[in-house]
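Key idea: predict the complex, not the pieces.
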Amino acid sequence: MPRFRPWLSPLLPLALAVVACGGPFPQSTLRPRSDFAGAVDQLFTSIFWWAIIVFVVVEGLLCYAVIRYRHREGRPAPRPVHGHTALEIAWTLAPAVILVFIAVPTMRTIFATAGEAPPTALKVEVIGHQWWWEYRYPDLRIVTANELSLPVGRPVQVSITSADVIHSFWAPALGGKRDATPGYVTRIAFRPDSVGVYSGQCAEFCGASHANMRLRVLVLRDSAFQAWVRRQQAPAAAPPRGSLEARGRDVFAKSACIGCHTIDGVSKGIIGPTLSHVGGRATIAAGLFPNDSPHLARWIANAPSLKPGALMMQMPVAGADLTAVIAYLQSLK
Amino acid sequence: MTGSRGLRSWLTTTDHKRIGLLYFYTAFAFFLVGGLEALLIRAQLARPNGTVVGAETYNQLFTMHGTTMVFLALMPLSAAFFNYIVPLQIGARDVAFPRLNAFSYWVFLLGGLFLNASWIAGPVFRAGVLNVAPDAGWFGYANLTERQYSPGPNVDFWMLGLQILGVSSLAAGFNFIVTILNLRAPGMKMMRLPTFTWMTLVTQFLVITAFPVITVALVFLMFDRFFGAHFYVPQAGATPLLWQHLFWLFGHPEVYILILPAMGIVSEVLPTFSRKPLFGYTVVVYSGVLIGFMGWGVWSHHMFSVGLGPIADSVFSATTMLIAVPTGVKIFNWIATLWGGTIRGTTALHFAVGFIAMFIIGGLSGVTHASPPADLQQTDTYYVVAHIHYVLFGGTIFGLFAGIYYWWPKMTGRLLSEALGKLHFWLTFIGMNLAFFPMHLIGLLGMPRRIYTYAPDLGVSSLNLVSTIGALLIGVATLVFVVNLWRTRSHGAPAPNDPWGGATLEWAIPSPPPPYNFSVIPTVASRLPRWKTEHHDPMPDPPAAPPAPVHVPGGSWWPPVAALGLPVLALALLTHHLWLAFLGVAIMLYGIYRWAFEPFEI
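Result:
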């Protein structure tokens, strides 16, 4: 009979996992970059080590028992032990005590991260849509999409809701996820502590392109954030008369685009993301593609082929008109 | 009508043993289907930006994988043992309501076929094949399931299929509660019941209390989808959170419905193969009962990311951590059962010990997301996928395989090959750890669940490849098991009454047992009737032939006929044909009417 070595097998994937690791892990939960994410990480680490201790002790006992007491010829029949009251009490209390060590910091962290920021916090409203994110800064009168810009070191109060089905807003480096439920406003609060670009995505299954509902958070130095705010608050760029961009604006204004998209002074659609400053964003289609001419062209021509289920219809814009529209959109910094 | 061979004898059977085998083969077939779905999922995720299937197909695959494994594979595989083993363990000739038992099976089969018909039913709805299978997740969160966001018949298939299966589970639940409480052999007091039978009893109470909750939730959804009601429509002032509360109020007890039978099996296998009574029988039984009760108080731990507020999160966190205590107690008692025994390393024992080893990992990762702040980073990621598979694969499926290797000789009269069994075990064990362990890291590195594609810069590509290789290995292991089953039909060593030296009543009678089970109903004087204990000598086996002819009821056509009415009724709702609804009701009423007036003594 082969001996039991149940402890060997889990080590193999673990070793493989360590070898396989590499890269920057932009969406890791283990590299906190805010107070909220830091508190969660600290709590998880302490629970993790408790779990490791329990794992080693209990699996160790199991393996020892299986090997030590395996059947061998000539061993007398085992004593028919039916139980042991003191032992039962001991191994009821032991996990209970360990759980106290987990429960107390848990409760403390629940209340510390309960979603309340100081009144001076930057207020941001997040609205989930199938399959993109709308961001509103009510105090700054800014509306934008998919790329959330925040100043480093300042508390942020995020209010989250949905325009259609349930989504979940999640940027792991900045903290835990929070569902975007239609009809509800939920809150999280955090203070980003490092400049950088952090990726995230929708975490609640929300239909065909749930996998393609990504997001980026840009944590900026205060000066860079102020510059971004000024650009966003400025009216949408008006192209010079007779330029390619002006032709693009005219094509846009005459197309179905205006039914869904807002560009200040041109259109007032609210079904899709605002495009007033779309040229200033690094990605399109909720973080799926770089914001460059080839991708814009393919997106405008046939969005559902790039993003299954996308609600944007195929636009009958082609040739020079398409080039013009792309030039116009890229000019909207 | 009482023939023992031929198709008709299987269609009309009311023998709990045959129904148990039907449950086994049907559920195992669905297990293979669910496994195939899992392999396709893993093929798609083996590389970033995978192109094996598209988004819509992928969403159908993970929805059907979850639904199939929970409702069509694990629950009915447990039911195979409830059917076959429980009446034998309590010294009964059959279940309390044999025809209701047959009805449960046929409803289960037809419900499972109805659900899976969605894979090929596309053309009926002017859509392609592989287009109308359920696609909103096995948890079916409102309001994505509303007609506005899921206009096709996909969600209809899902909710109607689950309603049909609920009827099967409820009927079986009542049947087994009555059976266990009323048909015990003389002297089989409650605290002498074998642990597996005890866990079956707790499970059935969970079934009859939890399934009505999902039934209500699904009826609301049916009204929303078919009649334009607004139970989950936020624009009408309702809240989609109602669904989440109802679903998880069912869903968490459901987790225990899936795991308690496996715990019961392990509690039978360990004593037999370590030649020692179960350590702390009373504590193991009471902790099972306690888990059954506590399982009702933890549902919102599936909803920490909803934002229910710090008070609710704290309460559900505390109740969830508390449930770890009776679970831990069971594990310690199992280890203490092995301690000091003479352990025979049969395949059944391998799977039972594997169960404990894997369940510990699943339990510990469970504690990490019992903590709401930590859970906010883990929920809806692959970390949770890892957790549920350590609990439901490493736990439930390992437990069920332990039961299969343990009771197969009793059920078929032949012993499964131990050599192939060990191979099956080690391949499964290595495969499952390769498949599911990396998922902990994949989740912590930020990959959400239920996504059909991921970007290469997420940094989880190699880990996903490892996981896919592990899944393939599980597939190979399952093939080994299928070969073992097939080979055993003709080449398996004939099993004596008691190949293992078991303590419980099922080992006192031939393998497979005669239709009447016990030639003479035994009188039980001890918790371990077939073992010598301090106060009791082993019970003598019943005589080989009954002293007088034993009356065994014949078969009946009416349970399958009545069962047939349900999918016809569901088809009516699916296709909006009123006449089909009348037809379905007529078939069911006719079946029940004939059933009620059938002299069941042919």
